[in-house]
Automatic annotation (TrEMBL):
It comes from the Eukaryota. The chain crosses the membrane at residues 136-153, 173-193, 205-223, 235-251, 258-279, 285-305, 317-339. It is found in: Membrane. This is EF-hand domain-containing protein. The keyword Glycoprotein does not apply. InterPro entries: EF-hand-dom_pair, EF_Hand_1_Ca_BS, EF_hand_dom, Peptidase_S54_rhomboid_dom, Rhomboid-like_sf, Rhomboid_IM_Serine_Proteases. It comes from Hypothenemus hampei. GO terms for cellular component: membrane. SUPFAM superfamilies: EF-hand, Rhomboid-like.
């Protein structure tokens, strides 16, 4: 029991040290009022009606015990674990993307003991949620889809069952949509769900999206060989399951992994498996391609999304996922090739 407490205390200290170093911008071993103000404001949401500066000054002065206008590490830790300090800033709310990536139940009061326990295994993932100039993959993809839709450039790109030899169509159908509603729904999800994921995992999200698109077209073509396919929905569903993948691989680094797993898990199961079993491919909606995109997004997500702190169990999950994904893709590609050969033989 004593050994466990030592490990936990070491983890707490490491976490607080990392936060302290983020605040200490000039790396002089102290956090000035200006540094604390800049740090807190950079992590707050869009302008609030509550002025931040007086709140920060008030808290700073309370914990600057020797009144030298700078906080050392011990003073800093005492401040950020104080109930009054936490109440002041949690009531102001965090950035939207942090709420989306890691939903936090803010109505429940968290005391100091619970906070320290949480910080031994969490907080690392949230700190990675930062917008970088290179995180524009979802934005560029959405712009291309909008331009191609309104210029009516569709015929060479859409997946057609009688043109399987034009292999680019297995991917390019993601740029085509059948209606404005279809386009708007996909773009909305890409930006609201895909962009926050991209802020943590960068270019990997586009690879997952592409894997979902390819998986969607293969599932559709093999199981419903006489139907065409348009729209980026399989890629959208791959983004949903990529969120599940990042929860699995970063479980100990997230504040509320269970909440996120339940939210994305219930939606994915209902909107892919349940709807496919119930409706098949009815009303011109390809539920099987949604399912294919979701499966590929989950497996590829586990394989390529960032794992902030790898454990032995996560390594095992990684190997299972790569074998499953390889097996599924090899099987469907072989089935697709056999369909093409059969079609050529008939002609």
């Amino acid at each position: 029991m004593g050994a466990e407490n030592i490990v936990i205390n070491d983890n707490i200290r490491l976490y607080f040290k990392a936060v302290f170093e983020q605040c200490d911008r000039d790396q002089d071993g102290f956090v000035s009022l200006e540094e604390l103000t800049a740090f807190i404001k950079s992590n707050e949401s869009s302008p609030s009606s509550v002025p931040l500066t007086p709140i920060i000054v008030n808290n700073y002065e309370r914990f600057d015990q020797n009144h030298d206008n700078k906080l050392d590490f011990d003073e800093f830790v005492e401040m950020i674990t104080n109930d009054g300090f936490l109440k002041d800033f949690t009531n102001l709310g965090n950035r939207y993307v942090k709420f989306l990536v890691v939903p936090v139940c803010r109505n429940r009061r968290i005391n100091k003991v619970e906070l320290k326990r949480m910080h031994t295994i969490t907080g690392m993932y949230e700190n990675e949620v930062k917008f970088k100039p290179t995180d524009i993959g979802m934005i560029l993809l959405s712009l291309i889809q909008i331009i191609l839709f309104f210029t009516n450039y569709k015929e060479p790109l859409v997946f057609k069952h009688d043109k399987r030899q034009e292999v680019w169509r297995y991917m390019t159908y993601m740029f085509t949509h059948n209606s404005q509603f279809h386009l708007a729904a996909n773009i909305t999800i890409q930006l609201l769900v895909g962009l926050p994921l991209e802020m943590v995992h960068s270019w990997r999200v586009l690879i997952i999206y592409a894997a979902g698109i390819l998986g969607g077209s293969l599932f559709q073509s093999v199981i419903y060989p006489g139907e065409d396919l348009a729209g980026g929905s399989p890629g959208v569903y791959s983004i949903f399951t990529a969120h599940i993948a990042t929860v699995i691989m970063n479980w100990r680094e997230m504040s509320q992994p269970v909440v996120q797993l339940i939210l994305f898990g219930i939606f994915t199961v209902f909107d892919t498996i349940y709807k496919y079993i119930t409706f098949r491919n009815a009303d011109d909606v390809s539920y099987i391609s949604h399912l294919g995109g979701a499966v590929c997004g989950l497996l590829v997500g586990v394989n390529i999304l960032r794992n902030l702190r790898e454990t032995r169990v996560e390594t095992i999950i990684w190997w299972i996922s790569i074998f499953l994904y390889s097996g599924i893709m090899i099987t469907f590609i072989c089935l697709e090739l056999s369909l093409n050969v059969f079609k050529v033989g008939l002609s």
